[in-house]
Structure formats: structure tokens, C-alpha cells
Structure to design on (493 residues):
């Protein structure tokens, strides 16, 4: 019985879940205001560009987007299995590919700012 | 041991519908879908930010779309459910033993709720959602 | 004593006669302090001696009388009739196990998995008898004591959605027992159990539904054992990746 390599994705799922639990509700409230057409001034192009230019901003943005993607990929893998979709390997590859692509795109964009 | 044990089959896609506990479990699993979609929305915003002011303005405008508005409320409900269920389970994963006794679970949960409140207030404050003087 | 007529709806299965299980109803005059097991014993003694079910201690320590009562796994000796809703009580054999006969299930899968996790003290070298017993402080005992309380009743396996969907899953009780020994200061067998514990069908098939801990009649909390092992296995995995020795 081989030891699983799930610790890799599980650790990202756990980190992402904790981060999401702590910050996503508040972030949703911020963008909710934008969704109502009244984005707070902090969401202006200049302010967000300044934020994303600094190291703290880059790290924060990277961690939130990337870890949430890995959290969703791993948890939805289990969820879809429970909902009747039994092709675990396919679902895993699809989900982790999306998370991986998202992570790379985030890095690429942050590098450009 | 008889030669004819009977194996009961469970419905593969709807097994959870019979019990409240199972439905709630599936709901907390599915909360991750909304968190993932939101991360993609944030990535979209980041891409727009990197593209320039024009693209970014278009992103902010697209956020006012009714689909986006509906998603935000749904995602908020699921994100809150995720936070509450996640924090409530933390004492099981990280028991804190002091001598012969364990720190009561509710204290560990409470500490997480305090951290959640602090993080949320910090984000709402620096983003200007909550007035700052 | 006050008698109340309670209807029991019991799943029957006689392999020599039945192709499929079917429900049989009994009207049982129950006393106020009866548990479901008392009602079953009444059926067997006075109404239908063909009814088969396991039981022994009648005090929730042997783990024999686990069954589905109104759709939830429980010990029939610990479920009071007066606590159940005022309608027919549905009694079925433990979910997720093949039915042997009536309320008796085939436990072989669990027993095999229990053996696989090596649920006994493993030492690199046995302490010579002359050196005396292993000493253990109350704090060291507290670290694993709750996981020693498992009575192998299999209620957790019946509640676990992952065991229902993935028959290869080693399951809550077996994994909780692995953790019980891993946490025992006298044990040195963590590494010996790791191959089984860290396999995909070990801790990693658990989705933390927590159903096992909710139904456990002895408050073992197998879910907590599994999550703690996920964390320690993950730390060990990273240590291994970085070339550091696993502690």
C-alpha cells in the first residue's frame, strides 16, 4: 500500500480553507459594494495599482487567489465524487489544472504590475 | 457464515438527501465552489488591473451585472457557512493539552472567531467600507 | 408497570428463503424504562423466535447491539423507547455492511482493516521483564485515553458517507485505533503503521463529515483522530520531501 501524495494538495486545501474562512466574507462585502455600483475609493485603479505594486500587496493577492483556487479544486474533487461523479482521476486533473493555471496567471499578472 | 449475504445499494448521487446531517455536509463541501469562482473573479480583476485603467474600469462595470450581484449574495452565504463550520471543527484537528487536561474546545473556537473578526474589520477598514475618521 | 403498545418495523432477511430483505411489523407492549433491545428481546421471547440479532452486555460496553434505529446507527441497549418519536420504530441492520441474517451484519471487512493498522504496542526492542513495567504519567495517558474507549460497535462505519461510497476506506474506528497507539508513549510503531494510515484508502479518503463522531456511543471522536493524523502525516511528508528525518 503506497503512501499517498495527497498531503501536498491537502495542505494547500487546509491553508486555503483557513485563509478563505478568515478573509473571503470581508472581501465579498468590499466587491459587493462595487456590484451595487458604489465601489469604495480603495478599489480605484490608482489605489489598487499602488497596492499591487508593493510586496505586501503582491503576496496578499497571490495567497488569496492561489490558495482559494487550490482549496476549491481539492474540496470540489471530494464533493463531485459524493454527488455521483466517480471519475476521480479526471476530476482531480481538471481541478488541479485550473488551480495551477490560475496560480500561474496570478504570478504573471503580478509580475507585470 | 452463509453463502448469500445481502448487499444494500445506496443511490449514488442522492444518498445525502435523506438526512439533515448529510445535506449540511454536502453544502459545506459545495461552499468551496463559490470560493473558487470568487478567486477566479479576483483573478479577472487582477488581469484587468495589469492591462490598464480602461480594462479595469470595464471590470468594475461588469461587476454591477445582475449575475455578479446574485453571485455575490450566494457566495456570501456560502462563505459565511464555510467560516462558521470550519472554525467550529478546529478543536478536533488541533487539541491543546495542558498537563492532564485539554483546553476546552469552545476556547479554541472563540480564538478563531476573534481572529476572524479582527481580519474582517481590518479589511473593511483599510478598504474604506467602514468609515475611517 | 405501565405498558405502551409500540410498533416495531424490523427488516428481515433469511438467506435460505428470501431473495431480498423485507419489513415485518410487531406490536410490542413496552414498559416505560425499556430500551429498544428490551423490545427486541420481547419479540424473540414471546412473538417470533426466528428474529436474529446480536447483543450481550445490555450496558453499552460490549459493542454487539449496533443497528439502525429510525435511520441512524445506535446501540439498541442505549436507545430508550420513550425517547423515540410516537410512531413505528424502524429497525434495520447497520448500514454499509452486508446483511448476514435479519439484524446481523457481516463484520469481516472491519476486522481485516483493524488488523491492518496493527492495533497493539510495537517496540523496537522489548523492555526486559527485569527492568519493570513501562512508566506513564497521567498527562501521557490523557494524550490517547479517549481513543481507547472504542467498543468496535461499527456505528461510525454506518454513519460515514465516505465508507458508504468508497468500500476500500479503512474507516473511522480502525484509524482512531491507529492514532490511539501512535499517541501512546509506550509505542514506537508510528512508522510501522504509516504505510497503511497514509495510504489513499487510509486517512486521505476521509472528508471530515464528522458523522462518525456524532454517532459514536462512547464519545471516541474518531474524526479528531483522523484530522490529527492528516496533520502529522502532512508534516512528515514535507519533512521527507525536504530530506529531513521524520521524527
Amino acid at each position: 500500500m503506497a503512501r499517498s501524495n495527497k498531503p501536498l494538495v491537502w495542505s494547500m486545501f487546509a491553508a486555503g480553507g483557513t485563509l478563505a474562512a478568515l478573509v473571503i466574507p470581508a472581501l465579498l462585502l468590499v466587491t459587493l459594494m462595487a456590484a451595487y455600483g458604489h465601489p469604495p475609493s480603495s478599489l480605484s485603479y490608482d489605489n489598487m495599482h499602488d497596492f499591487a505594486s508593493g510586496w505586501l500587496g503582491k503576496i496578499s493577492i497571490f495567497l488569496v487567489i492561489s490558495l482559494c483556487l487550490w482549496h476549491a479544486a481539492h474540496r470540489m474533487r471530494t464533493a463531485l465524487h459524493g454527488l455521483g461523479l466517480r471519475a476521480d482521476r479526471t476530476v482531480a486533473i481538471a481541478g488541479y489544472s485550473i488551480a495551477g493555471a490560475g496560480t500561474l496567471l496570478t504570478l504573471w499578472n503580478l509580475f507585470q504590475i | 457464515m452463509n453463502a448469500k449475504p445481502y448487499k444494500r445499494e445506496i443511490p449514488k448521487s442522492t444518498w445525502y438527501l435523506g438526512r439533515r446531517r448529510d445535506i449540511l455536509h454536502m453544502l459545506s463541501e459545495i461552499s468551496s465552489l463559490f470560493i473558487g469562482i470568487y478567486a477566479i473573479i479576483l483573478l479577472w480583476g487582477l488581469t484587468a488591473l495589469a492591462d490598464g485603467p480602461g480594462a479595469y474600469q470595464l471590470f468594475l462595470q461588469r461587476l454591477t451585472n445582475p449575475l455578479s450581484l446574485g453571485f455575490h449574495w450566494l457566495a456570501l452565504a456560502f462563505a459565511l457557512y464555510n467560516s462558521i463550520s470550519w472554525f467550529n471543527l478546529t478543536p478536533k484537528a488541533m487539541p491543546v493539552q495542558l498537563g492532564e487536561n485539554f483546553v476546552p474546545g469552545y476556547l479554541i473556537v472563540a480564538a478563531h472567531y476573534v481572529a476572524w473578526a479582527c481580519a474582517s474589520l481590518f479589511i473593511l477598514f483599510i478598504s474604506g467600507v467602514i468609515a475611517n475618521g | 408497570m405501565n405498558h405502551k403498545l409500540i410498533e416495531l418495523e424490523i427488516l428481515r432477511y433469511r438467506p435460505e428463503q428470501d431473495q431480498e430483505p423485507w419489513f415485518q411489523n410487531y406490536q410490542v407492549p413496552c414498559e416505560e424504562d425499556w430500551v429498544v433491545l428490551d423490545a427486541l428481546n420481547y419479540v424473540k421471547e414471546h412473538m417470533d423466535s426466528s428474529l436474529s440479532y446480536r447483543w450481550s452486555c445490555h450496558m453499552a460496553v460490549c459493542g454487539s447491539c449496533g443497528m439502525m434505529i429510525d435511520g441512524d446507527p445506535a446501540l439498541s441497549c442505549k436507545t430508550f423507547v420513550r425517547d423515540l418519536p410516537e410512531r413505528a420504530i424502524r429497525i434495520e441492520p447497520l448500514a454499509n455492511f452486508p446483511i448476514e441474517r435479519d439484524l446481523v451484519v457481516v463484520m469481516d471487512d472491519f476486522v481485516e482493516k483493524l488488523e491492518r493498522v496493527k492495533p497493539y504496542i510495537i517496540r523496537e526492542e522489548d523492555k526486559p521483564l527485569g527492568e519493570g513495567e513501562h512508566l506513564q504519567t497521567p498527562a501521557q495517558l490523557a494524550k490517547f485515553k479517549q481513543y481507547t474507549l472504542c467498543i468496535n460497535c461499527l456505528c461510525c462505519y454506518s454513519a460515514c458517507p465516505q465508507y458508504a461510497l468508497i468500500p476500500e476506506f479503512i474507516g473511522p474506528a480502525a484509524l482512531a485505533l491507529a492514532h490511539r497507539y501512535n499517541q501512546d508513549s509506550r509505542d514506537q510503531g508510528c512508522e510501522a503503521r504509516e504505510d497503511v494510515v497514509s495510504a489513499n484508502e487510509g486517512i486521505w479518503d476521509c472528508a471530515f463529515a464528522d458523522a462518525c463522531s456524532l454517532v459514536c456511543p462512547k464519545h471516541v471522536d474518531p474524526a479528531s483522530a483522523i484530522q490529527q493524523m492528516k496533520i502529522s502525516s502532512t508534516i512528515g511528508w514535507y519533512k521527507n520531501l525536504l530530506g529531513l528525518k521524520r521524527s
Notes: The beta strands of chain B are 97-98, 101-102.
